[in-house]
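Private note to self, pasted from the team thread so I don't lose it. Backbone tokens:
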């Protein structure tokens, strides 16, 4: 099926292209898979207003969370979306055999173009790529049915703290985008409902800092923040020669957001 062209800013085009190239995402993104599982556990504890919900997923990637949501609501009507067409195709291939009403669309989740409202909007590890998180939350909440829920996981300010320290120690710029603190996220809830936040710190170990950077590239998560000045390549190469006999530990500071729109 041909997908309509969507309007992308230069930054979102870079992000979409990086994920389009991430052929190994589904095999390599173990942390993202675990975070999707943890978000789904939170979903399990939240009653919806209907048994057969209209659901929307933003940034579905290869479908870790999509599969759980479709299996949890087999009678639902599911719209799975992503800004990267190749990620959406991978998702479709992975979920091909699942019964149920599942549709797919290339869409920028920050600027949703949608014909209806949803009982549930979910997203795992995509909002950290947004250029304007407060505006996006507001727009997504407008697409919720009364009493509908928005659930997501994203990165918090403590994400990749060890890489930040490594950059400071080697006088390199820290290239990751800015992520909100839990307190900052709490201040972003739209007016017409109630939100709750939770946070976790997941630690993974890579053999070295270079392996950490290679891993980010492998899963398409390497584009740097919008105002990042790249490091001099010689200086970066020299720093990355540094070895880590115990491995290079990296923290994923994960924020979970759970919002319910006021009932009518
Ligand atoms: C780290 S992956 C997470 C994928 C999946 N949700 C998971 O848990 O494995 C981030 C995904 O968000 C998508 N993405 C990034 N920015 C987006 C945007 N503005 N709108 C929709 N999707 C976006 C990427 O293309 C990618 O598939």
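Design output:
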């Amino acid at each position: 099926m041909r997908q309509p062209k969507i309007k992308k800013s230069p930054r979102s085009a870079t992000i979409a292209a990086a994920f389009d190239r991430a052929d190994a995402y589904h095999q390599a993104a173990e942390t993202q898979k675990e975070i999707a599982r943890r978000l789904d556990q939170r979903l399990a504890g939240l009653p919806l207003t209907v048994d057969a919900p209209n659901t929307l997923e933003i940034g579905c990637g290869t479908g870790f969370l999509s599969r759980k949501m479709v299996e949890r609501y087999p009678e639902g009507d599911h719209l799975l979306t992503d800004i990267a067409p190749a990620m959406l195709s991978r998702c479709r291939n992975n979920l091909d055999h699942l019964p149920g009403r599942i549709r797919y669309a290339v869409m920028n989740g920050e600027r949703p173009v949608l014909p209806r409202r949803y009982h549930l909007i979910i997203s795992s590890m995509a909002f950290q790529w947004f250029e304007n998180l407060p505006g996006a939350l507001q727009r997504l909440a407008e697409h919720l049915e009364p009493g509908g829920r928005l659930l997501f996981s994203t990165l918090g300010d403590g994400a990749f703290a060890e890489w930040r320290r490594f950059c400071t120690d080697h006088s390199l710029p820290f290239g990751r985008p800015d992520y909100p603190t839990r307190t900052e996220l709490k201040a972003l809830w739209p007016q017409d409902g109630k939100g709750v936040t939770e946070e976790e710190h997941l630690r993974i170990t890579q053999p070295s800092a270079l392996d950490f950077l290679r891993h980010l590239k492998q899963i398409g998560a390497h584009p740097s923040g919008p105002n990042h000045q790249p490091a001099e390549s010689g200086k970066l190469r020299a720093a990355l020669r540094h070895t880590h006999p115990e491995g290079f530990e990296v923290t994923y500071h994960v924020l979970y957001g759970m919002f319910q729109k006021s009932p009518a």
